[in-house]
Amino acid sequence: MKVEILATGSDGNCIFLQSGSTGILIDAGKWKRDLEKKLLARGINAATDIQAVFITHSHSDHVKGLTLASKYRMPVYATHGEWQKISGVDGELRQVLETTYSKYDTIELGSLCVHPFQTHHNTLEPVGYAVEDDSGNRACVVFDTGHIDSDMLEMMEGNIYIIEANHDLDMLENGPYDAYLKDRITDPHRGHLSNDQTAAALQELIKGKGERIYLTHLSSNNNTPELASQAVRMALFEKKLINKRDYHLEVV
Ligand SMILES: [Zn+2]
Ligand SMILES: [Zn+2]
């Protein structure tokens, strides 16, 4: 499965996943013109290579470039709850992620199967995604979430992990944000993942079979690539797993 992190961070998030002739975007959180440039630079044709856009939640760093979908007539998938806060997508392109017995239905799209699952953030109905292709790859995309529960862990298990490592707790505590914002970021039901939370989840998930890990959505005020990378490498070293030998870690 091809993975292109077109953008990530509090300025905007957008991931391109492709298998065979099927490509999707997860989130479109940069302005349309930015996204067009980034797609062009990677040789991705917006008109033909992207079959749909899947939205994790309605915060602007995840949806502000959705006019891209209208321009190229891409269907956009989001939950009922998130659609309430997303505007600017033509009615005929809006697709709702439905549930059956409180689990989200799988979307089949060419050679990809997309499985949404619930996350924990300060919007109405946020989700993450596990995306499978027909060669046996399974990628998960987990952005803004205050914690990772056991249902999420089960859905995430695969060989490609695109996961938020938002903040280092010490940097956040000693950093410039006011108490309200600090509390919001660390709130397990409304916030973001710390390096330690991400490392703990990966410690459960990574088996050392060459998994690819992309750490994303790092806070520019409260984290550094070195701290995020170190937290994950140390957690995996406790399982005797070593970067570049047992798994491949990239901080984006
Ligand atoms: Zn958010
Ligand atoms: Zn975000």
Can you put this structure into words, describing what you see?
The protein is an alpha/beta fold. Helices cover 27% and strands 28% of the residues. It is built from nine helices and 15 strands. It has helices at 32-41, 60-63, 67-72, 80-83, 150-156, 169-174, 179-186, 195-205, 225-237, and strands at 2-7, 14-19, 22-26, 52-54, 76-79, 94-97, 99-100, 103-104, 107-109, 112-118, 127-133, 138-142, 160-164, 211-216, 247-251. The strands form three sheets. Strands 9-10-11-12-13-14-15 form a seven-stranded mixed β-sheet. Strands 1-2-3-4-5-6 form a six-stranded mixed β-sheet. It has a two-stranded antiparallel sheet with strand order 7-8. Helix 8 (195-205) packs parallel to helix 9. The longest helix is centred in the last third of the chain and has 13 residues, at 225-237. One zinc ion (ZN) binds at residues 57, 59, 121, 144.
Helix content: 25-40%
Instruction: Specify the structural class.
Output: alpha/beta
Report low-confidence residues grouped into runs of 5 or more.
none
- Biggest sheet, in brief? 7 strands, mixed
Return the string of H and E elements.
Answer: EEEHEHHEHEEEEEEEHEHHHEHE
